[in-house]
Hints:
Elements: H1 2-11, E1 15-17, E2 23-25, H2 30-36, E3 43-48, E4 54-63, E5 66-71, E6 90-97, E7 102-108, E8 120-123, H3 135-138, E9 141-145, H4 149-152, E10 157-162, E11 165-170, E12 178-183, H5 206-209, E13 212-213, E14 226-230, E15 235-237, E16 247-257, E17 270-273, E18 279-282, E19 287-288, E20 294-295, H6 300-307, E21 312-317, E22 325-332, E23 336-341, H7 350-353, E24 359-366, E25 369-376, E26 387-390, H8 402-405, E27 408-412, H9 416-419, E28 424-429, E29 432-437, E30 445-450, H10 469-476, E31 479-480, E32 494-499, E33 504-507, E34 516-526
Amino acid sequence: MNTFIKTLALMQVIQYVDAAGVCLSIPRLCKDILLSNPGSRSREYTIFLDTDKTMDVFCEFSSPYHGYTYLKDISENPFILRSISATTEEIKVVHLRTSGRQYSTILEELSRYKRRHSLSLQINENRGFKTPLNAPFLGKYIYVGFLPRSVASSRSVQGYRAGSKDWEFHNCDANPNSYIAFFYNNSPLRTHSYHKRCCYNGYMRKWIDVSKEYTPQIPFDYFRFFEMHMGGCGGYVVPKYSTFSDIVGAVPGFRFDITCSDIHCHNGGTCRMTDARKPVCSCSQGYVGRFCQEKVPYSCKDIAMLKGAIDGEYSIYSRTSQNMQYKVFCEFHQTYGYSFVSNTNVSVNVDDLFEIRSHVVVRYLRRGKQYESILEQITPYANKPLTVQYNSNRGFNTPKNANRMGPYIYLGFLDQITGRYRTKQGYRVNDADQTFVNCDRNPNSYIAFYFNPQKNPPVGYYRYFSYGPLMTKWLDDAVPVNSYKKLPVSYFLQFEMHLGGCGGYIVSGYKTLNDVVGASLGMRFEI
C-alpha cells in the first residue's frame, strides 16, 4: 500500500514557488521549462528527478529551441547524463577567472575524427578512455573524452576543437590521454601532484584564449576543479596553477534540443525539423501559432470572437494566399462593425469582411483630416444589395485604371444589365438620393479603390470631365471622424468614381480633388 501511494505521488504534478513567488510545476529537465515557456530566463532552477529527490541546475536558454544544462552537484543524486544531453557532438564549458568574469567555449572532437567518433560523456566512469589522475583523490567526476584509448594510443595527430577551430598536436609517445574531467568533491581538495611536474603550455590554453565572455552568470558554487590531459606531448593542466593561475574552475554544459518528439502540433498540424535544427509546425488550413493552437482570423468578426471587440488595427489572414496576412482596422459597435483594409499586396477575402450589403461607410483624407459618409443604393433600388469585389468586377463595367493601378476593391451600385437603360440612376449619401438620368445607356456605376503597388498615374480620361456636385456630394456632405476612429494613412487608397452616361467621372488627387489623398471603404459585418 505504501509503495502504491508513493508511486501515485510521483505521478502527480509537483508544485513549488520560485523566487518571484509564482507557483510552478517542478520540471524534470531544463527542456521542460523551455517547452512550458519559450520566454524563460537563463538562471538557476530546481528540477525533479525520477527518484524522490530534487536537484539544482543552471538552465541556459540559448534560443526557444535549445540550451544547456549545468549541474551544481552530483555527489548525492544518482544521475544519467544522457537524460539531460541531446548530443555528444559538443559540450559547452564555462570557466570562472580570478577577475570574477565568466567565459564560455564550445568543445568538440577534431574535424578529422568527427565521422568516426564523438565525445564520450560519462559520470564517475571512463570506459574505453584513460583514467583521470585525480580520480582516486577527488572521487566523483564528469568525464569528457575526446579520443578513446584504442585511437589515442598511437603516434598520430590528436587534440580537440574549440571556438570552431581545430587545435592539434602530435602524440610523441602514444600515451592515450585525451580528456577533460570535472570533479564534484565537496571536501577540502587533496590533489595529485602531477601538475607540479608537467605540462603547461600555450596549446593547452587555446580553449581558454578563444572563449567569449558569458553573460548569463552562473553562481560561483557551480565552478569545479578540473584536469585536462592530452597525450604524449600535448599537456596537462589544472586550475590555479602556472598558465592557468587565473582560472578558478569550470563547469560543463550539456546541450539539449527541442525536437518534433517534444512538441504536439494541434488541429492536424505536422512537425518537421529545419536545417537549423528547429522543430516547426506546419499547420493545417485555418490554424496558426507555434503549435497550430490558434484559429486563423479571416475577418474582424473572427477578431471579436478570438480577442474581444476592441477597436484597432489587426492582422488577418487571406484565404486565397495561404499563410499571408494583411492589416485591417476593425471598428466595433454593439451588434455590428466595419472593416477597413490597409494598402496590401495580399489577396483580400472580401466575402469575409462584407456581410450586410445594404450600405457602406466611405472615409476619406483631406488636408490631414478624415471625413466619412454612408453610401447606399438610391430609393428605387433600395432592395438591390451593393456589390464589393476584390480585383474583379463581375457583372459590372470595368474601371478605367484596372490594369494600370490594380489590384483594387470594387464598390458597385447598379450592374451592367440594370444600368444599361436611360433611367434615373445614382447613389444615396447620408440619407439623400443623388441622381442623374443615364443619357447614353453606358452602365458605369462604381467606385474603385486602387492599391497601385507600382505607383502608376491614372489614365488621362479624367481630363475630359468637370468634377460636378453629383460626383463630389459624398465628399462635400461627409462628417468629421472622431479621433478614436481615425485610420492610419496607409488605409487611404486612390480612387476613381464613374456614373453613366452623363453622370460623371472623377479621380482623387486631380482637379478640385487635388488635396484628397484617398479614401477607404468600410464594410459592415454583424457580431
